[in-house]
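User: I'm curious what two different proteins look like when written out as structure tokens. Can you demonstrate?

Assistant: Sure. I'll show them one after the other, since each token string lines up with its own sequence. Here's the first protein:
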Amino acid sequence: MSNHLAVATATATLQRIIQRAVQRDVDGARVTTVRPDGSSGSIPETGVNLYLYHIKRNPALTNQDTPNFQRRGDMTRRRQAAIDLFYVVSFYGNDGDLEPQRLLGSVVQTLEDQLVLSADTIRSTIADPTFTYLADSDLAEQVEQIRSEFISVSTDELSKIWSVFFQTPYALSLVYKVTVIIIESDIAGRSALPVRDRILGGTVFPKQPVITQVVAVGGKNQPIFSNSILSIRGQHLSGVLTQIRIAQVEVTPQVLNSGELRLPLSLISPSVLRAGVQSLQVIHLSAPPAPPRNGSQVGGTTTATTRRKTPARVPQVESNVAPFVLRPTIDAVTVLDLDGFDDEPRSGTLSISLNLAIAPGQRIVLMMNEYNLNSDNPVGYLFTAPPITRATATVSIPIREVKPGEYLVRVQIDGAESMLTVDDNPDSPTFEQYIQPKVAIN
């Protein structure tokens, strides 16, 4: 959530992004944030003016600011206002040299290339000495993504904006929306202290394990594969008997402490794992069940056998369900039914064999990038696989109108992308470049 500086920070961030682009594309161009009628400052002779003229509640998050109240009427959390910002972006310059139109093209290209105002971009704006008054802004910490979006408005609507708001002659302009800014109230809510233990009839229930993070042991930025070791972090993770449930399979992890468990994914059969988003849960069981007591042989005589039914291992406590992204690995790529001659584009089918099975309903995208060290502009293609009707580790994806040549191949399954191999041989001409997996389209 953000404080009262959120709106000003969003405007300043847009101003910095646009300023970097237009000063490169049109000599002497500058970006201002004044009223287009010039009453609050000077309009640039050559440049762009960014003016916030309208604000609306965000319809998707319109109920998010509804406060929660305790039974006594105390508010349990701070109120929030989710708003969208509307800017009129106007362009000025020498019409004979088409400067307004060149500036318009520069702004549209820049904002399309940078649709999302990233946390790093916002932090750079806050740290800019030009905007010292934004030093206390916390917009960069907002969880909701902030996006800029071009709004198509009619000539009549633009005319109304200029005539109603500014009463000044029209200048070439666009309307952009920035969504969503969430401003949080300064008034803190009240919340009762948490219950430490639940006691019913003298029985103390164990504390519920809480998972806060699932990452590869190498670090949170490391991809997770079927042979990775997971680090499961949180609170109250260790119990009398701790199990991890993944893909309806329960396995015993290595318990480091109450705050971390480790689990090699190699303990789980690849046949039950699926590429994409996987769910994981920590389960605390009661003491392990006693094995059945069978008869034993003493001096060649079999004693009486006492059979006892093995008690089921009933879960005592289950944690929250935590997601992690499991990346697939391409084992092989085969070209099938290729059509085309000479320099004609090729069409056919690629058969992709993976180390993990794909489940029905999962979305598979094939990505091909031309492997040509001598090309300054290698081509790339995206193809979507037909719907999968049964679990399979091999998928056939039709390709169309592909330029002949060698291609690096990746697949994306529900957003989980396979990795390319990097050449780590210092003596190789392709050192530190992607080299595999490849396929030849001839």
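Here's a second, unrelated protein for contrast:
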Amino acid sequence: MKRDDRELTAWLRRTGSLEVVRALATLLPGAAVVLNDGEGRVLLWSPEAERLFGWTAEDVVGQLAPTGVLCDDEERVMRPFGARVSVLRKDGSAVRIQHWARRFGEDGAVHVFSLDAPRETTTESGSDVMEFHGILTRDPGMKRALEVVRNVAETEATVLVRGESGTGKELVARAVHLESGRRDGPFVAVNCAAFTPTLLESELFGHVKGAFTGATQPRKGIFAQADGGTLFLDEIAELDLDLQSKLLRVLQERTFVPVGGTTPVHVDVRIVAATHRALREEVRAGRFREDLMYRLRVVPIFLPPLRDRPADVELLLFRFLEQLGSRGPRRVTRVSPEALRALLAHRWPGNVRELVNVVEYALAVGRGAEMSVDDLPPEFRERAVATPEPAPAPGLRPSSAEEADRVRTALDEAGGDLTAAAQRLGVSRATFWRMRKRAGI
């Protein structure tokens, strides 16, 4: 044992190790501290843990920790260091936390928790990075969208999130909920494209016993489950026209009738909807009700695709390498220049979700601390053999038809305001003017 360790051990014996641990637990401002033994029983539950989770020390000390506080499953698998998760408090409400833990072999672990508040950080290179409820970006256009999210969350306005698949629409919807006064209520998400119209009606509004064949018990619908909270309707453009009229009635009257029922049910629900389609185009095509569109897009938020956020590709790459690497045997600390060039030149049709899949693939097939181009999926390796095409400038697309569609959509959403439309695309007014000219708009 080193001399410093011997002196520290002697000091701890004199002062009492228990008192030192308790003092440290109360000296960490805004942080909850929990200690558990090897069986998962709580040994220490700090005053801040009482405030954060709702259980008192008397409730939990000597018992197994409340479900979901220290880990995500019954097998007590430790979360990744610094994990951001949502935890249910004693009263059933949810709280978003960041969790750091250190295990001491089979003898237990020390856990430190803090509220996962949105924040802006500065990287070592000095460039501003914004992290907001799990959304990480340094892209100016994305930052502006998140500022709108933060502001609109304080109101009860209905929000429509526009963006391609994989851009993070559900994360934005959760951020609206967590930043709002409804944060202690439920957040319920449903994908409108995942059900047939008949099933979706029952899913949304519930049904009474005997409403249809097989309805042997009454069922509480998603609207009722989300009462007092936020309901996220993903892929809203896929909603059947008949269901659109029923949804409009709920938005107007705050009531609905379960399938097969006769008694109206009152609900207090905030709607956040999302789609990858332009609703104005859907209205013109006769596939979407114009009155419902205006009800849903009180505050439209456009999420730029990853190909228009080149600065975020490298940023998110290293974040996912860190997060996913902590769960498996391989830890990647650097990326070869060839691999990084291939990733930056990619068009990312699947956006952030595709990037996550690429990182998972690379960690699984490769070995060593460096990620090389050979670790990437075949389409990246094939591109790397040929001369890579230069990455397109932010806000531009190679297809003039696609660019024209983006310009029209931005103008529609901005009500014809050129400056606001340019901001939605994350480009300057001059660049937007040139884009309009090329598109002939």
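A detail about the second structure: The radius of gyration is 26 Å.
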